[in-house]
Amino acid sequence: MTNSTLPSEPDIKSFDRIILGIDPGTNVMGYALLGVKAKRPVLIAMGVLTLAKMDSHYLKLRRIYERVQSIVDQYLPDELSIEAPFFGKNVQSMLKLGRAQGVAMAAALSRDVPITEYEPRKIKQAITGNGAAEKEQVREMLIRILSIPRDTILPQLDATDALAAALCHFYETSRPLAYSSSPRSWKEFIAKNPSRVK
To answer: Average pLDDT for residues 21-41, to the nearest whole number?
Structure first.
């Protein structure tokens, strides 16, 4: 297990809300805590849980469950933002990744933490403006957006992927109500406003 925190870790009670981001995996699970204060996001902590040396897939799942619960108990997040598994050609890998995600979600639910799931492309789009961005590009944007000291960034991209999931959720839930309810197309506008179109 590897943790990365800012030189002086903020007091969690000082935040209006805390978002836990998770990048699920059966070899490495990334996690990050994002605090929101005065409508501004601040990195609280991030890290990785390394599981590659464990032989049993089921013991890995138990370790994920226990670690997510301990993170929730320590930081008391208000919400969990988790990256959805992407569809690949290897069915066994997909099954294992889905189990890892499910166990992490179950651990959060056991502590009554609400969950939102985001597709990898959605997260990359929210952070970089490009849904096909490389993981390294996402990391660089996070360093800039959140003013993260480079010496605190872990080499594992799983940690910054988890932070990206948390920041994506912050962006999605911080939109003004008028913006979020505005029509996405001309067809949707017509459907919602038949009296205004002749």
So the answer is: 95
Domain ranges of the chain: 2-196
Residue of higher predicted confidence among 106 and 181: 106
Catalytic residues: 23, 83, 158
Q: 2-196 is classed in which CATH architecture? A: 2-Layer Sandwich (3.30)
Look up residue 111 and give its DSSP letter.
T
- pTM of the shown model: 0.84
Residues 6+ apart with CB under 8 A from 159: 4, 23, 30, 31, 32, 46, 47, 48, 153
Closest CA to 46 of 69, 75, 26: 75
φ, ψ of residue 13 to 5 degrees: the values are -75, -15
Q: What is the secondary structure of 130-197 as a DSSP string?
A: -TT--HHHHHHHHHHHTT--GGG--S-HHHHHHHHHHHHHHHHHSS-HHHHTS-SSHHHHHHH-GGG-
